[in-house]
Amino acid sequence: MVDSIDPIALAALRPGMPVARLADALGSLWRPLPPHKAGRADILENSHGFVARLDVDGAVAWLKYDWRFPTAAPVDGVHMGASLAATRDARPDLAIEADRLGGPDGRYGFHDYPDGSRLLVTFTMGVVNRIQLFRLDATFAEALPPPYPEPAGAPGAPFADPALKLAVLSALLDAKAIDLGTPEQLAAHVLGRAVDPDEEGYAPIPEVRDWLERYPLDDALLARVTKLVLDGGSAIYPYVDSYWGGEDAQFDVATLAGIEHCPNLAEFHVTALIGTVDLRQLTVLPNLRVIHVGVDVAHLEALLAMPALEAVGQMSDAAYGEATGHGAARAVYEALKARGVRVWVHWMTHTGPGEPPAFE
After folding, report:
1. Are 219 and 196 within 8 A, CB to CB?
2. Is residue 1 over pLDDT 60?
3. What is the residue-wise DSSP string for 252-319?
4. Cα–Cα distances in angstroms (integers) from residue 175 to residues 51, 55, 84, 197, in the given order
5. The organism sits in which domain of life (predicted)?
6. Cα separation of 345 and 333, whole Å?
7. For residue 277, what are the CA distances in angstroms to 70, 272, 291, 294, 329?
8. pLDDT by residue (tens digit) across 160-187?
9. DSSP of 255-273, one letter per residue?
10. Gap between the Cα atoms of 276 and 254, Å rounded
């Protein structure tokens, strides 16, 4: 459904428009906003970088487009990713702040309209990476905690490793399939009291982790997991440990057992949190199209048993050595390429002269 969104329709939205215009632009993704959202329509935040917010009267009052928004759909004449010079040419009425934002290539530009709305453009690394349109006098409802389900079942269920369930919950957060509110809101719900992250955020909250590990996941929710990422920067971890920086193994995944409960998983990406990926555990996923792994793998031959596979990427010195050799691993890669699978294998560290190319 996300693929059917028209970016031009999103880019044409303006502050002051009725909610019906926002609903039309979102199409089949539109749902009436529950009270706890405080008018925030963020279903496309992670896919298109688009968020809208309604004011207390139910009119569109704030629009945000970030670097993920398609460059081909200009917002009020401004293209995402455009250079400072190109933006000045397109919008000579844009006032560019002289003060630098976060370094020599960061700037703000703005233009105020007679109707009381403002266009605000943020430049990072010399290009547009955020565009906002908003009413200067807008009043918004207060955001409230979402309704929370009752935890149920064994920790981690239906997965063997509770840490894998946390990663799945993060995928559902990214897809806007579940709403946990803010980390502070969830902690307050679980603990029954207010939580100040500056006071309590420097250590994990075991009660919150237990609650998350027992979050009820039915087949309908699990079917919405199409992309799974194992990475220490995922959205779920601040709910357990606000300022965790990857300095320990508390979120490491020991096994992928149970991953078959995500039947529509199409992409699997790993940058951390697991020492070795046993590829045999992924053969139970009939729709898996993309695998990109930055750690070691075991049983490379299992890739040949994945009929939907379209692309494989690996980044590790061991994998690169095997791919450029003449052994069994090279044979697997060549068989995949013959089948039309895109193969990309790159080294992680290199100490010799030059930079060897990726194996493709």
Report:
1. no
2. no
3. -----TTGGG-TT--EEEESSS-SEEEGGGGTT-TT--EEEESSEEE-GGGGGG-TT--EEEEE-HHH
4. 14, 25, 32, 25
5. Bacteria
6. 9
7. 34, 11, 11, 10, 15
8. 999 999 999 999 999 999 999 999 999 9
9. --TTGGG-TT--EEEESSS
10. 9
Give which of 141, 147, 146, 54 is closest to 26, Cα–Cα.
Answer: 54
Q: Which two tokens stand for residue 109?
A: 């530009």
Sequence-distant (≥ 6) Cβ neighbours of residue 335 within 8 angstroms? 304
- Please identify which residue in the block is written with the tokens 């039947």: 263
DSSP string, 97-166: PSS-SSSTT-EEEEEE-TTSEEEEEEEETTEEEEEEEEETT---PPP-PPP-PPP-SSTTTTSSSHHHHH
For helices 206-213 and 183-191, angle between their N-to-C axes, nearest 10 degrees? 90
* Confidence band for 347, pLDDT divided at 50, 70 and 90: very high
Q: What share of the chain is helix, strand, coil (3-state, %, to 5)?
A: 30, 20, 50
pLDDT, tens digit, 9 for 90 and up, residues 275-333: 999 999 999 999 999 999 999 999 999 999 999 999 999 999 999 999 999 899 999 99
Q: Please state at what angle helix 162-174 crosses helix 206-213, rounded to 10 degrees.
A: 80
Distance CA 347, CA 55 (A): 51
Contact 77, 31 (CB under 8 A): no
Contact 174, 235 (CB under 8 A): yes
Q: What tens digit of pLDDT does each residue of 120-172 get?
A: 999 998 899 999 999 999 999 998 999 999 999 999 999 999 999 999 999 99
pTM: 0.89
Residues present in the chain in total: 360
CA separation for the pair 269, 293 (Å, rounded): 6
- Supply φ then ψ for residue 118, to 5 degrees: -130, 140
**Cα 41-148-153 angle, rounded to 5 deg:** 130
Asked if residues 272 and 233 have their Cβ atoms less than 8 Å apart, the reply is: no
